[in-house]
Design goal:
Layout (H helix, E strand, L loop, with lengths): L7 H8 L5 E5 L12 H16 L3 H5 L10 E5 L10 H5 L2 H11 L2 E6 L6 E6 L8 E4 L4 E6 L3 E2 L1
Amino acid sequence: RGLHDFTSEEEAVYLGEDNNSKVVMLEKDDPSKTLEKTLDRCDRQLSHLSMLLRPVTSSVLGFESWKRTSGYLRLPDQDHWADDLQDEDVDEGKVEKLISFIRLRRLSMMYFLESDGGEVRLFPEEGAGFAEVTLPVEANRLLPFRHDLMNY
């Protein structure tokens, strides 16, 4: 598992505003695989929750759930910076993937494994019809939210 480099545009979409973390993309969870590492077991919990929610997303949340994307491990990095999109990023399909993600994302989940405090500010997309909310970050907490209706 190596560090994942996002452009500044990708970073805002995937990781929220004012990101100050380095990111490792986790391997796609395979439910048939036996897990030994704690991080993999935590990721598996997100897969299980996704599977449990799938039958009710249409009737309860108003969208059809069809797959879970790979997870990201975020670690604090105060010296973090990201480059802007370049012409070669267009040629490599990064822009197309980013637009696809924006159009298809619905439910995001943040699983806070450890925490030294802090907060997450969720703010509604224009026309979503609800107010901004600020929530404390605490260890062993899960924060699911509609990413198509809110950003952070």
